[in-house]
Each structure stands twice: as C-alpha cells, then as structure tokens.
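Lecture 7 notes. Example A: sequence first, then its structure tokens.
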Amino acid sequence: MAGVITRAAAVPRAPVRLWRFARKFGRSTPGRLTGIAAGLVLLSIVVGLVTSTGVQGKSDEVRDLATSAEPLSVAAQDIYRALQDADATASSAFLAGGIEPAATRQQYLADIAQATSALTLEAGTQTAGNPLETLSSQLPIYTGLVETARANNRQGFPVGAAYLREASGLMRSTLLPAAEQLYKAENARLTAEQDTATTFPIGEVVLLLITFGLLFAVQWHLLRTTNRLINTGLLVASVAAAVALLWTSAAMTAVTLHLDSAERDGSDQVAVLVQARFAAVQARADETLTLVVRGNGQSYQTDYLTAANRLGGRDGNEGLLGQARAMTKDPAVRSMLDNAIQAQQAWLTVHRRIRDADNAGQYGQAVQDSIGTSASSSGTLFADLDKNLVSALDSARAAFNQEASAADASLTLLRPGLIVLAVVIGVASGLGIWERLREYW
C-alpha cells in the first residue's frame, strides 16, 4: 500500500522535472542557440507569408485599376456623352426637316446603341442601382418621344417640335443627371483605388528591415560568445534578407512612381477632357434647340453661353480647354488641343452669325449655318473640336494604361522571389546555428 502511494506521489513530479530540465537547458549556450534557431525559422515563415501576401494584394490592386476601375469609369463617361450627343443629333436631324440626312440618323442610332452597351457593362458591377435603374427605365421613353417627334416632323406637323422639346426636357431633367451621378460614382471609385494602390507598403518593408537587423544581432552575439568572425549560414541569410528588402523597396517605389504618373498624365487629364467634351456637346445641343423652338429659345441660348464659356472662355485659353492644355506635357496632345481651341473659337464666330441670322428673320440661313456640311458650319466645327478631344482622350488613356502596365510589371517575379528568399533565410539560419551547436556535442 505504501509503495502504491509512493508511486502515485511521484507522478505529479514528472512535469516538474521536465520543466526544470527545460529551464536549465534554456539557460545553457546550446539551449539559447536552439531557441535562436527556432525563432529565426519562425520569423522566416512569417516573412514569407506576410510579404508574398502583401505583394499579391498590391498586384491585384494595380491590375484592377486597368481592367475594372478605369474601363468602368470610361463606360460611365460614354453613357453621359452618348446621351448628350443623341440629344444634340436628334435636334440637328429635326432641323433638317422631312427625311433627315442618313448620316445624322446613323449617328443618333449609334449614340443610343453606345449608351445601351455601356449600361449593360455597368449593370454587371456592384455600382449602386438607382442611376442605372433610372437610365434603363427612362431611355426607352426618351427614344419613343424622339421617334414620335421625327414622325410628325416628316409629315410637316408642328407638334413634332413639342415632342422633341419634351424629349430634350426628359434628357436634361432625368437621364443626364442620372448619368452624371453614375459617372461621379465610378470616377470616385477610380480615384479611391488609385490612392489605395499608390500607398507604399510600409509594414512589409519594416518587417524585412527587422529581419535583417535580427540576423545582424545574432551574428554579433555569436562573435562575442564564440570569437568566430564569420558564420556562413547566417551571412547567407543576411544577404537574402538584404536582397528581399532592397527588391521590395525598389519594386514598391517603382509602383508608386508609375501610378503617380498614370494619375498625373492619364486619369487627371482624362477627367478634364471628359468634362470638356460634355461642355461641347451641351453647347451644341443648346444651339440646335434654340433653332428648333423658333423664337422661344432664350433659355437654351443662355445655357449655350454658359457651356461655351465653361469650355474655353472668350479666347480658348480659359476654361476646360485651357486647363487641359496646361496639364499636358505631350507635344502631340498639346497640338490636338491647339486644334480643338482653334475649332472652338471658329465655332463661337459661326454661332454669333447663326444668332444674327435667326434674329433677323433669316431662319433658313441660320439652319444652314448650323447643320450644313461646309467647312465653316457649326456642325462641322463641332465635329472637328470633338475629334481632337477624342484623340487627346485616347492619348491620355493610353498613357494611363501604359503606366499601370509598367507598375504591374514592376511586381513581376517579386512574390515567388520573396518566398524563395524567405526559405533561404530560414534554412540558412538553421544551418548557421547548427554549425555552432555541433561544437557542444
């Protein structure tokens, strides 16, 4: 009985003995070296996981800019611009009277098709549904009113102008505000994602810096305790940590610089050029509607003057055109904008001639100056202005995509490279400590 009690009492003492042994071993040099080795291996695992995950996240952010955020922003721009142009084109077609020119009709249908296609693209995103629902439900009503106006106009019925005016009112009061809301939402999303993608990953760099510092500290400790100047394993691990640190810092700096350039030379210029196109089409629609309503278009004329002033001011060097020209560093884009300014100034001159003719009762001459095919007509000058703005927009978008692609290329091989370097740090650290441990056995 006593023996059983003795053995039972000895059982709880086994963990105590194990704890004492662990404490004693931990205080010994081999124990400390073993702990250092385990810590460095664990640190290398953390480094590999954290840095590779961070790089993958950064790469996803950069790619999303070029493949999602920027195209959706452009789609929202296309909706607004296509609807504006459809309204202006419908008015121009109405002015032609009877059967409108085939080119004008095709332009109107192309605008509606472009707006519908862009709406379909936007509908596949997580964008808030209210503006999309408004556009989807009201666009068929608008096109129906335009077709009714067109049918009455072809038969010479004056009521056609009333239908066209109602259609334009729906466009301006409902469709365009919804399209503008959608554009602002997508543009805000693009800006937010640019800011996120441009952020420098301080956490990953600090972790690599700490790793390099700890490896140096361990080597210094071994130098003081063993008088061994070089530990090959720890030296290799330190070099791997230094390479990882420099590579990550250089790659992330390159990403930041490329995305800054993409914003400065790309999306920022696109935003101004888009607003310039919006103002130009708005002015064109107001100009034609002033003639459509025949004597009741003072409100449209006032809106025209506001849009024209916003577009380029009195000399073309003000407003959005002047702002866009001041922003660009590309000589080719600057030349396009110079051409756009020249067309805008010529358009202002023709518009004054149109208003003088209309006010003098020369309605036919005013219509001809507005929708005629001569090089000096308002429609031709507007088309020239818009063509140059489109070319400048395409160049700015190309600059954005080029810089975004360069930012993505900066991260090529970095993620697998960091994983390999983390493995090297862990293995080399373990082998370096093992060299010292063997001396005690």
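Example B, a different protein, same format:
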Amino acid sequence: MHDDVYRYNQERWEALVEADALFTRPMLDLDAERARNYLGLERLGLPRDLAGGRVLCLAGGGGQQSAAFALLGADVTVLDISTGQLARDRSAAEHYGVGIRTVQGDMRDLSVLGDASFDLVWHPYSLTFVPDCRIVFREVAGVVETGGHYYLMCANPFFSGLTHESWNGEGYTLKQPYTDEAATCYPDQDWVYDRTPSGRVVREPREYTQTLSRIVNNLTREGFLLTLLSEVRGERDDAEPGGWEHFMTVAPPWLELVWQYRPGVLGS
C-alpha cells in the first residue's frame, strides 16, 4: 500500500519530467574524465577506481549520476519513484552504450533489491521528501556492503525551508521551527524548470525537516562512520542581497556527507 507521501512525490516527479526540469535532463556530453570531475570522488574521499564496483543511485534517476558511474566502469542500479526519471536513465545508458539497471520503488523500502549488496550508495537531494529519515537509513544499512560508502546530500537542517525570498532588508528571517518531521513547502526556484505562463504547472515540493542530531545519531546507530562533512555554499562576494546567490553565501542550503558502513566498530 502506497501512502500519501509516496503518491505526492510520484505525481510531482512525473510532472517535473514532463516539464523537463533541470534534475530530469540526462547528461549526454560526458567522458570518463568529465564523469569523475562531475561526481567529485576525489574531493569526497571516495575511491576513484570504480571499475566493477556496485553502485546504487538511490532516489537519483534522470540519467545524470547513473551515466557518470557507468562510464567509470561501475555496475549501476538506479532506484527511483518516477518511471519518467528511470526512462531517462535508460536513454542515457543507450546513448553511451553502457548497462544500467533501473528499479521503480520507494527509498523507504529497498526490499525490491533483494539480497543485493552495494559498495557505494549515492543519495542525491531527496531525503527531505519523506518525514522520517530513520527508515531510509535502516534500509540503506541493509543493502550496503561492510566497508562500503554512503554519500548523502541533504538540506542543511538549520535552513531547511528557508529561501532567498525570506530577505527582510537586513537578513533572511528564520520562521520554520527546528524540529523533526515538520512539513514545509516553498516555490521551486526559477532555474528548476520553465516558470513562464506557457510552462507546465508543477505542484510545489512538499518537504519535511530533519534535525542534524537525528541524521547523525541514527546513521551512527546503524553502523555508519562519518568520513566527510561539507557545506554547499555560494562564493560570490558581490551577489545582490535578496537573490539566490547571496542567500547561499549567508545560509548554505545543502550538506554533503560521506559515511562508511562499519557495523560493530563503535559497539552496540
């Protein structure tokens, strides 16, 4: 049985595919070096040699990361809620002449993957689309190999739901309570897809806040060790206040985290 969270996310992402949103456009101009630079494996402290490595792109359809990993010789599986997104992964795979396995499903239930074990689970921005991140972490722990890595990009918990539109003339006003599972909704940025009157109407993202303590403590409990934490921030000192570039210099909107699965190392 699919719940309202599943149905909302599936409907929204199918609409984003039809609107040709930025995150749904396959990358069709990659070679091995460009793929490596795009993924930033060295910066993240992840193995550069992925030949034969088993990679799961979790809630990461669209023909972008999957294509990059496949070009580096990885055995790639993509799990995504959107059949449209998965179709774009297959399109990218055909373009490059590589094999990519696509699986339609929910990040909160990875049983569809069977007994598959992955050396790397690559999880781009999507964690905030579900209320309880602990369910996702439990599922990831069930499919990653001991010694394998989990890359997670997520909303910066301290600024989740805040955008450049919160500019008050002096700063960006925080209004969202800092708590777990608070629902938040805000308009897509102009650069996500065509927002002109002739463009397709897409429902706004429905997201849920996750505190940093819940993220860190529960990944640790599942047996993960943190190896890298990076804040994704803007670097334009001349950015105009009240705009997205300036907002990014004041309130880094995203975090990148790399975890290694080492169950038992920290004890029970």
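Note on Example B: The mean pLDDT is 94. The chain is about 30% helix and 20% strand.
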